[in-house]
Sequence to fold (93 residues):
Amino acid sequence: MKPKAFLSFLCACSIPLSGQDDNAGSATETLDEIAVIGSSIPELDLSRSSILTKDQVNDRQIDNLVDLSGLSPNLHINNNSIQSYGDIITMRG
Fold:
């Protein structure tokens, strides 16, 4: 073999060894401790919401969404059958 070819062969074989860690098997790595800080979820403010019980729905004989829209101030139901895509139900808030 020519000396240049032999030298380049040795260099090519030693390149993967240069990336190896000397202490690869001797030391174990540990992760740093992570602290999670948070707060509890605040209670919901239901003072401006519409809450209807089962008894209220039965007493007022609510059978469909149109009847329900009269009891909830931000519930609007448009069912005029003009739209080809059906009824429109919107709720604000």
Observations:
- The first strand starts at residue 75 and ends at 78.
- Strands lie at 75-78, 88-91.
- Residues 54-91 form one domain.
